[in-house]
UniProtKB/TrEMBL annotation:
<dbReference type="InterPro" id="IPR018247">
    <property type="entry name" value="EF_Hand_1_Ca_BS"/>
</dbReference>
<feature type="domain" description="EF-hand">
    <location>
        <begin position="440"/>
        <end position="475"/>
    </location>
</feature>
<dbReference type="InterPro" id="IPR002048">
    <property type="entry name" value="EF_hand_dom"/>
</dbReference>
<dbReference type="GO" id="GO:0004806">
    <property type="term" value="F:triacylglycerol lipase activity"/>
</dbReference>
<dbReference type="Pfam" id="PF03583">
    <property type="entry name" value="LIP"/>
</dbReference>
<dbReference type="GO" id="GO:0016042">
    <property type="term" value="P:lipid catabolic process"/>
</dbReference>
<dbReference type="Pfam" id="PF13202">
    <property type="entry name" value="EF-hand_5"/>
</dbReference>
<dbReference type="InterPro" id="IPR011992">
    <property type="entry name" value="EF-hand-dom_pair"/>
</dbReference>
<dbReference type="InterPro" id="IPR029058">
    <property type="entry name" value="AB_hydrolase_fold"/>
</dbReference>
<protein>
    <submittedName>
        <fullName>EF-hand domain-containing protein</fullName>
    </submittedName>
</protein>
<dbReference type="InterPro" id="IPR005152">
    <property type="entry name" value="Lipase_secreted"/>
</dbReference>
<dbReference type="GO" id="GO:0005509">
    <property type="term" value="F:calcium ion binding"/>
</dbReference>
């Protein structure tokens, strides 16, 4: 059997109905392109591509990959089948008027096989990126310069795109992220939405509870909901957004059993897994929120913005007075377009300086967190072509978390969930890490070697390991130096033992060189 086409390959296209066409669109096309399922399975994904009126500029039209807000979980909710909502269509029209091609994925599992992994940003980020590749296959004057703009659920996806885009599709020129009313800090958001028992159920919650089952098959919220709450979750499996607004009418948190839902067994870990990790992004980010947003309260977005700024990410934040959730699609759009036009000329943020702590602190915010390690792993597996939910990727990601726990267990003296430079240096200067650190590193080393070991001989040969180093962002010259430094016995291949040694030595003293730095990737 022939292997599937590469991700983003355009497989089919046909004209969209005239009613689906935004203003300022010279053409409106439904596309089907090659995607990758969250579990690594080959999967087709559908979407829409809109071309602007007029001749393309020199170098081609830049692209906005638009990530739509919640439409529902079933196939009939896909925008390429039903059209974007009026407000989203108007939003897309403004990008077209500014001279951008707009490529809008449906997300995997909407109008194509498989379930839709709602609120799994890792699962849909590649869909948002691959539709740009498909748009380039549709028309020769579509350039490789692009940005992502997402609304609501799509803003959550867009922030995941911002974390991995450069690593997942290095052949494209990714410029930055626009996130409109993003549902971030999901555990905090759920606390805010469910804290008042008399509050009407948020339209977000039934979709969230139903959609989480796609990525977490063992998760079932219905046992701790009332009959009315369980019915809402069942409705959410097939309802459109309009249907769900009708279903929640006059339904309160208390009446459905949703009040304080985060305290229920099994909920918090699932919500935590859906969070946008807070770590440094290597491209600028524009976030907007509305003071009157009834779905994503502005204080939750402000908390995320403050945390993201502390990582060193270049963030612009606009808070729009009186704007509801839907209003944010139009509020301040002229400023968003103007900001986007500056991105091609903006300098890329410099990487952190290499100091004992700074070489390990890849996002440069002066502390290590679990999210740093989560993103290291996610970038690595996606850069290496592994879907984030495949068995191989899950093993790598799990062992990065275990490495974080090993570092935190030894260093996080105040138990605040972060390791400061002072805490780390106190550990290093006071006593060497004990031999148990090797045992903590070894499972990660084994998982990384399995990731690259195409011929299954238990080691990474020079070509396999060089491919890994390139996926981690090293140049050919840097890769050659790193390979020589890791290959201690000069065998021409890298063993698990050699990986353990360089990672251990790097964690013990990042100032001694960069032989093990590749395992933490590069922003």
């Amino acid at each position: 059997m022939a292997p599937p086409p590469t991700a983003g390959t355009l497989l089919a296209h046909d004209a969209l109905p005239a009613a689906f066409r935004p203003s300022h669109a010279a053409d409106a096309v439904r596309v089907v392109y090659q995607g990758v399922g969250y579990d690594g399975a080959s999967r087709e994904v559908s979407g829409s591509v809109f071309l602007p009126v007029g001749a393309p500029p020199a170098g081609g039209w830049p692209v906005v990959s638009f990530a739509h807000g919640t439409t529902g979980l079933a196939d009939h909710c896909a925008p390429s089948r039903t059209g974007l909502s009026r407000l989203e269509r108007d939003h897309v029209a403004r990008w077209l008027a500014a001279g951008y091609v707009v490529a809008a994925t449906d997300y995997e599992g909407l109008a194509t096989s498989g379930p839709h992994p709602y609120f799994n940003g890792e699962a849909v980020a590649d869909d948002v990126i691959d539709v740009v590749r498909a748009a380039r296959g549709l028309h020769p004057d579509v350039s490789g310069s692009w940005l992502v703009a997402g609304f609501s659920q799509g803003a959550h996806a867009a922030l995941f795109v911002g974390l991995v885009a450069h690593h997942y599709a290095p052949e494209l020129d990714f410029l930055g992220t626009v996130a409109l009313a993003p549902p971030v800090h999901l555990p905090l958001l759920v606390d805010v939405l469910t804290g008042d028992g008399g509050r009407r159920v948020s339209v977000l919650l039934p979709f969230l509870l139903a959609g989480l089952r796609a990525s977490h098959p063992d998760f079932d919220p219905r046992p701790f909901l009332t009959d009315a709450g369980g019915a809402l979750v069942d409705v959410a499996s097939t309802a459109t957004l309009v249907d769900m607004f009708r279903a929640i009418d006059r339904q309160t948190n208390d009446a459905t059993g949703i009040t304080g839902i985060r305290a229920r067994p099994g909920i918090d870990p699932v919500l935590h897994a859906c969070r946008v990790p807070v770590t440094r992004m290597d491209r600028p980010v524009y976030i907007t929120a509305g003071d009157s947003d009834e779905v994503v309260p502005v204080e939750v977005v402000e908390s995320f913005v403050a945390d993201l700024r502390r990582t060193g990410t270049a963030v612009r934040f606009d808070r729009h007075g009186g704007a509801t959730h839907a209003d944010v699609l139009a509020a301040g759009h002229e400023q968003v377009v103007a900001w986007s036009g500056t991105l091609a000329a903006s300098a890329r943020p410099a990487g952190p300086g290499v100091t004992r702590f700074g070489a390990l602190d890849a996002d440069g915010d002066g502390r290590l967190t679990e999210d740093d390690f989560e993103v290291f792993a996610l970038r690595l597996v996606q850069a290496f072509g592994e879907a984030p939910g495949s068995p191989t990727a899950l093993a790598v990601r799990h062992h990065y978390r275990e490495l974080w726990r090993a570092v935190a267990r030894r260093s996080d003296l105040d138990a605040d969930g972060a390791v400061s430079q002072a805490e780390y240096l106190r550990l290093l200067d006071g006593a060497a890490l004990d031999d148990g650190f090797d045992r903590d590193v070894r499972p990660l080393a084994e998982a990384v070697v399995r990731l690259v070991d195409a011929d299954g001989d238990g080691v990474a040969d020079a070509a396999e390991f060089t491919r890994l180093l390139r996926a981690c962002g090293l140049s050919d010259e840097e890769s050659a130096v790193a390979l020589a430094a890791v290959d201690h016995d000069g065998s021409g291949s890298v063993s698990v033992v050699e990986v353990v040694e360089v990672v251990r030595d790097f964690c013990l003293d990042p100032s001694r060189g960069e032989a093990g730095r590749w395992v933490f990737g590069r922003t």
